[in-house]
Design brief:
The chain is α+β, with helices and mostly antiparallel strands and about 525 residues long. It contains 22 helices and 13 strands. The protein has a six-stranded mixed beta sheet with strand order 1-2-3-11-8-4. A three-stranded antiparallel beta sheet has the order 5-13-12. A hairpin with a 2-residue loop joins strand 2 and strand 3. Helix 6 runs antiparallel to helix 7, helix 15 crosses helix 16 and helix 15 packs across helix 21. The longest helix is centred in the N-terminal third of the chain and has 35 residues. The chain is globular. The mean pLDDT is about 90. The structure holds protoporphyrin IX containing FE. The site of protoporphyrin IX containing FE (HEM) has 26 residues, from helix 14, helix 15 and helix 21. Keywords: Heme, Iron, Membrane, Metal-binding, Monooxygenase, Oxidoreductase, Transmembrane, Transmembrane helix. Belongs to the cytochrome P450 family. Its cofactor is heme.
């Protein structure tokens, strides 16, 4: 018996050691060797760090310099020795990132038949619904049908009908700010965008009608919270959890909720789902996105539509308020840009003093936004230099593929290196300089450094193809309205140290918040 137990123990130990060696050392090295053999088209960090892979650099940067994952991708993209693809090696999950337009173009032709959506990790709000939502599902016929219906309801061609609702939420959160008040802009923008998108999806005043969540705190005690606070706390929790070393080393802990913290996140996720379901069951709302989709897609299960709506909520929240923060930040960092934009607002919006700002805000004429060419270029440049999503969601190679000169094995996880494309020095002149005019065909910056027209895939803040962001039109409109609203209403200051910080940027996983002083409230 004694002997048997010892043998079993030794066999198990050898098994575990073998598993760990394979996972952390053999597999990643094999992957590197595979791509190294294929020549210079696939880049990788010069030295592989056993156990942590490229995550070591990210963690160091995150902790020591206040940098975050997006910076890592940007730094990589700016390296001199550029390759069109690179592998980003994190324990158990190597990801092949595309950053060259020709390769992207080839990849795009293979989506969705041979390359399709694969969630990179299983964490997050996507689990609130019982099934994967819009952003996590494979591109089936049913998915296409659901996506088209949802896009119709978020107003792909006439999103302007949501402007009054949007302004209501902005006025509610920004309206009471006073002259000389110091504000955490990120927080106010976050609340405004979240409450807008939640109302758009589930109905006006949803936040007042929804019940309290029983949120499980880190010490195990339950705190009753409003849905908004619950989701925000959870989002912060999940960001910090995903950077915890144990989750980095063993992503299975997140996938299968094996660590205590992940189990707690899962329980809180379910609680948010319970509150939303409860609300939907008793809601009489008929105009919300959810209600419209339920009416149109009678054969789809209610829980699938709820999951899809949550995809919209998650996809349309952080990305948009972070981009708004970047825009407001850039205006102070680049005063010439602010001057030009104010001139355009004076000429087109307030017609050189003829229309008082408060009157314009009350009767917002969205057609005037279409005339604001500089505003459009400004937002495009903000999304180029500060993309709120530094890379796409995950895709998977469904069979072995050849993309140009690179063989990609079946099962490989693939993403678009959004930030890498947006600062690609072959496509953009002075890629790190903020120049809105680069979107003006008459500007010298409109062309590539070799004086050619830019490739259509050079500009991909929302990515491209059949899985491109379904909220892009809504997002562009929201940003235009939000910026005009903010500039008509406030004068503000951002402290010099923040303006001079070259790493300050606002995007998913960014550790920064935008603080400012409101120096004048120009209208109520
Ligand atoms: C400035 C704002 C936004 C940016 C920069 C942005 C960017 C992106 C990016 C890069 C993706 C990944 C696409 C891919 O994997 O190829 C994405 C997907 C998605 N976005 Fe957005 N987004 C924004 C706003 C919105 C809004 C307002 C909504 C909804 C109302 C939204 C909903 C979604 C959804 C549902 C997906 C998943 C699409 C799919 O897999 O089919 N996004 N977005």
């Amino acid at each position: 018996m004694q002997f048997n137990l010892t043998t079993v123990f030794i066999i198990c130990l050898i098994g575990i050691i073998g598993y760990l060696l394979n996972k952390f050392i053999l597999k990643p090295y094999r992957k590197r060797a595979y791509y190294q053999k294929q020549g210079a088209s696939v880049g990788m960090t010069p030295k592989f760090n056993p156990f942590l892979g490229d995550y070591k650099l990210i963690l160091e940067n995150y902790q020591d310099k206040g940098k975050f994952i997006g910076h890592y991708a940007r730094d990589l993209a700016l390296q001199e020795n550029k390759s069109p693809l690179y592998i980003f090696q994190i324990p158990n999950k190597d990801i092949l990132c595309f950053r060259d337009v020709e390769y992207l173009s080839e990849l795009n032709k293979l989506i969705p038949k041979y390359v399709d959506r694969e969630p990179i990790d299983n964490s997050g709000f996507g689990k609130i619904g019982s099934t994967g939502g819009l952003g996590q599902s494979r591109s089936t016929k049913e998915w296409r049908n659901r996506r088209e219906t949802l896009m119709k309801t978020i107003g792909i061609n006439h999103a302007s009908k949501f402007i009054p609702l949007f302004l209501d939420h902005f006025q509610h959160n920004f309206g009471s700010i006073k002259t000389n008040q110091e504000i955490n802009f990120s927080q106010v923008a976050n609340t405004s965008v979240f409450s807008f998108i939640l109302s758009l999806i589930f109905g006006k005043n949803v936040l007042d009608q929804i019940g309290l969540c029983n949120y499980e705190q880190k010490d195990g005690s339950i705190k009753q919270m409003k849905l908004y606070d619950c989701m925000m706390t959870m989002s912060d929790d999940m960001t910090s959890e995903s950077l915890q070393l144990y989750n980095v080393l063993f992503p299975e802990l997140i996938d299968y909720n094996l660590a205590t913290e992940n189990r707690r996140n899962e329980r809180n996720n379910k609680e948010i789902g319970r509150i939303l379901n409860e609300f939907i069951d008793q809601s009489k709302e008929t105009n919300s996105v959810y209600a419209q989709v339920i009416r149109e897609l009678k054969n789809e299960p209610q829980q699938q539509i709820l999951s899809d709506c949550i995809s919209l909520l998650i996809g349309g929240h952080e990305t948009t308020f972070m981009s708004f923060s970047s825009a407001v930040y850039c205006l102070k960092k680049y005063p010439e840009t602010l001057k030009k934009l104010m001139q355009e607002i004076n000429t087109i919006i307030t017609e050189n003093g003829k229309i008082p700002p408060e009157e314009f805000i009350k009767n917002f004429d969205h057609k005037k936004l279409d005339e604001m060419e500089y505003l459009s270029m400004f937002i495009k440049e903000v999304l180029r230099l500060h993309p709120s999503a530094s890379r796409s969601l995950g895709y998977k190679a469904l069979k072995t593929l050849k993309i140009n000169d690179v063989m990609i094995p079946k099962g490989e996880i693939i993403t678009f290196d959004v930030i890498g494309c947006l600062v690609n020095p072959e496509q953009w002149k002075d890629p790190l300089n903020f120049i809105p005019e680069r979107f003006d065909p008459s500007s010298e910056y409109f062309k590539t450094p070799s004086d050619k027209n830019r490739h259509p895939l050079a500009y991909i803040p929302f990515t491209l193809g059949s899985r491109t962001c379904p909220g892009r039109s809504l997002a562009m409109l929201e940003l235009k309205v939000a910026i005009v609203y903010f500039l008509l209403k406030f004068e503000y200051q951002i402290n010099e140290a923040d303006l001079q910080n070259p790493d300050m940027t606002f995007s998913i996983y960014s550790p920064f918040e935008l603080h400012m002083k409101i120096t004048e409230v120009k209208c109520r």
